[in-house]
Structure formats: structure tokens, C-alpha cells
Amino acid sequence: MGASHSQEEQQFQLQSQHHQQQQQQPQPHEPARRESWSLSPEGNTKSSKNTTKTQSSMPVKPWNFQGPIPHNYEHILKDADSPVANSSNWGNLLDQLYAGVFLAHKTKKYWVEKKSNSNCFVVYARALSITWAENQNYWTWEQKKEESCYVCCSGSMIELAKLKRVCWLEVHGKFDIGMVSPGVLYQVSFIVMLKDSAEGWEIPINVRLVLPGGRKQEQRENLMDKSRERWIEIRVGEFVASEKDAGQMEISMYEYEGGMWKTGLIIQGLSIKPNN
């Protein structure tokens, strides 16, 4: 028992030292940002001729369509994995947006909530920065059919991050606030599952939302009280964006000060959707 305890202390020290080294260099598994998620306006550099062409290509809402055109949808769909209906066929396009569209090589999903006509997103685990995620001693990756009730499910195969054993839990994600619908109250949550065999969660985890400009929301969540063997939401925070807002919001989940070895957590991703 003494030798095993000493070995765990050495592993904890190694993880702590490795984390300090990672802070000085980019995470190797953190996905590169794609330019299509930038909010840099393109119209300022185009001629009046091109501007006229762009304006004329905007879809005309059919007489029976209620509500505004989904915010920034054309810019978002530039990152779609598969072709979507042409904007001239508004009915088919709306059907696809309601059903959900995979983005950025199936690391994100975009859909429009029919009730509020608001943009919704999920950022899957592969698009998050998870400390030790590429070390198979601590995490593994698994392809599984999407079945969470918290996102617009298509039954497609997605990639999940499965925790084997760590004492240093640290997960970070970023998202462009300009993609959400202005004036709508949004909730940001991690979508996770705890297995029946999960251990080491006696110490509450920390969750944090940092909005562009530095406004921060932080809280602690006790996973010991959460359901097992089903997908659950760990609420991180809420916000309302305006049309003038720009920049990245940062979402985090972490616990590494208690030193307890944690097991049995599965991460599907982050959901960003209206708080109805």
C-alpha cells in the first residue's frame, strides 16, 4: 500500500509539472481556428458592384414565414461539412437549419431553434482543449451515435472523450459570440455523463464563463449529486449578446487542487442555446 501511494504521488507531481510546461506552449491537440469563424466584415473592402451583388443574393422571405432570418446564418454555413440548400429555396434551407448542420469536420454543430428562431450550437469534445487528452493512459476517444437530448440529435456518429484516470482535470473551450442571436438569453453548459463506476468526485469541480470584455461568471458543481449513466448538463453561465458584441468567449471546467484521482467521466461537448 505504501509503494502504491508513493507511486500515485509521483504521478500527481508529473501531471502538475507537465501542466506548468503546457502553459508555456500551445496545446498540441487544440484545434486550429478557422478563418470562417472570424467576424471580420468583408463588405468594407468590396466595390459597390460586388456589394450590390451580395445584397441581391439575400433570400426573400416567403409570405408565410414568421420571424426574422436567422442571424448570421450565411457566414456560419461557410464552415458546413456538407452542401446546404441554396438560399433561393428558403423552405428547404430552413428544414436543414432546423435539423442541424455539422461544421468544421464534425467538431461543431449549428441549428436553429424553431420556437424562437434563434441560433444554437454544440462544440464537440474534439474541438475542446483537454489536458492529457492525447495520452491514452488518462483519456481515450470513442466514436458513438449522438443521443443526448440537450442538442439537436441526428443519430450521426460523433467523437466522445472518455476519462480513464486523472487527478488534473482541465477542459477549455472558446466560441465566437458573434454567432449567437442578439437579444436572446443564452445558457452555456458542458454535456457530460458519469458512469456508475465513476470515482474521485467528492471535491466539487469549477466551471467558468468569461465573456469578451472580461466579464466573468464562476461557480462550483458537486458531481456527487448528479445522475449516472445518462447525459447531463453542467451549467456554466448565461449571457445576452448584442449586435455590436464581438470576440471569443471562454468556457472552462477544472479541478486539480484536491489531488484526488477521478474516473468515469465522458465529455460530449459544450452546448450554447437559448435558456427557455
From TrEMBL:
Compositional bias of kind Low complexity: 9-27, 44-57
Region (Disordered): 1-65
Species classification: Eukaryota, Viridiplantae, Streptophyta, Embryophyta, Tracheophyta
A molecular function (GO) term: carbohydrate binding
Database matches in Pfam families: PP2
Top-rank taxon: Eukaryota
Protein name: Uncharacterized protein
